[in-house]
Amino acid sequence: MTTAYQFITAWVTSRIDDERGASLVEYALLVALIAVVCIAAVTALGSSASGKFSEVTSGIG
Question: Is the pTM of this model over 0.70?
Answer without folding.
Answer: no
